[in-house]
Write a structure and sequence with these properties.
Length: 334
């Protein structure tokens, strides 16, 4: 049982079969029929003109930001945004794009008054504010639909574009019980990770207008992300979107049960209000040594990342029974 992340999911037997059978060609020449099919299908499925298959969510975000912003431009984002905090500063390093982070509200949203105040005047002292980048889900929390509508109004009023890091946008759609297109409609561009809860081995998508994706395709070549017979990966990626979305419902049920069970163990506190999807953060009392707990759990084949709060991520390779076993083991050690 590996609770570190949903990135640890193994491809399904159907994915392995589709990978073995995939028709392939050189995708840098545009010749791979399986990649072309995935890109066209995904663009249509999410309500965009075009899509680009990328090696990772990090690469999709990087290309996404660079295709919106030129050197010396700026994007607004959350302090906790993956594309600010956990992507090695790629937009700044490789794109010369300045991030302007804003403290996230506890629910993951960004306050519009602070965003407004952070927009730079048109003056030679300042970077040019071009883009607002949101993340949904963010740390497992879902951004409310009315917040997305207000964010769209905000960017329109300020002449900005809006990007979504949608690594787990399907988790958000499932939790909100809406079609993923309803979330996507507010954004000029969006990423989707195929290799997290949706279980593809490798790959993400960047979605946007034809012109924007053409620019991102050029940038992908520049960063060495042009792949050749990538249809082998795209075949699994399509199954992620067509066969694996339902599984997320079970992952969310398992996360809620895990949160509920942890709350009954002395020394553990989970804020149940924020368990919207598949990520659970548990605060530990000082008397619990998270490193020791992780070591003890590892002896029983349960992998967790030590830390406080301790993060547990549910996914298809963890069953409802596994959750009960994990809770029993934690309770017994504590
Ligand atoms: C919200 C979010 N965006 C982007 C990424 C980057 O994805 P990758 O690990 O495929 O580069 C992650 C990875 O966990 C993520 O959680």
């Amino acid at each position: 049982m590996d609770f570190r992340s949903d990135t640890v999911t193994k491809p399904t037997p159907a994915m392995r079969e589709a990978m073995a059978q995939a028709l392939v060609g050189d995708d840098v020449y545009g010749d791979d029929p399986t990649v072309n099919d995935l890109e066209q299908w995904a663009a249509n499925r999410h309500g965009f003109e075009a899509a680009l298959f990328t090696t990772s969510g990090t690469q999709a975000n990087l290309l996404g930001l660079m295709a919106h912003c030129e050197r010396g431009d700026e994007y607004l984002c959350g302090q906790q945004a993956h594309n600010y905090r956990y992507e090695a500063g790629g937009a700044a390093v490789l794109g010369s794009i300045q991030p302007q982070p804003i403290e996230n509200n506890p629910d993951g949203t960004l306050p519009f008054d602070k965003l407004q105040a952070a927009i730079k005047p048109n003056d030679s002292h300042f970077a040019r504010t071009r883009l607002l980048s949101l993340e949904n889900t963010i740390n497992g929390k879902v951004l409310p639909m009315d917040y997305l509508a207000k964010a769209r109004e905000f960017v329109d009023n300020n002449g900005l574009a809006m990007h979504l890091d949608g690594a787990r946008v399907y988790n958000a759609a499932i939790a909100l019980d809406v079609d993923v297109k309803e979330i996507a409609q507010y954004f000029d561009s969006m990423t989707v990770c195929l290799s997290k809860g949706l279980a593809a081995p490798i790959g993400s998508l960047l979605l946007g207008s034809k012109e924007y994706i053409a620019k991102a395709r050029r940038l992908r070549k520049m960063v060495g992300g042009g792949m050749r017979q990538a249809g082998i990966l795209a075949a699994a990626g399509k199954l992620a979107l067509t066969e694996q979305v339902e599984q997320l419902k079970q992952d969310h049920i398992n996360a809620k049960r895990l949160a509920e069970g942890l709350n009954q163990i002395p020394g553990f506190a989970v804020n149940a209000e924020f368990i919207h999807t598949n990520i659970v953060f548990a605060k530990l009392d000082e008397c619990i040594d998270s490193q020791l707990l992780a070591t003890k759990l590892a002896d029983d084949g349960i992998t967790v990342t030590p830390g406080n709060p301790m993060r547990f991520v549910t996914h298809k390779d963890i069953s409802g029974q596994d959750i009960e076993t994990c809770l029993e083991k934690i309770a017994s050690y504590v």
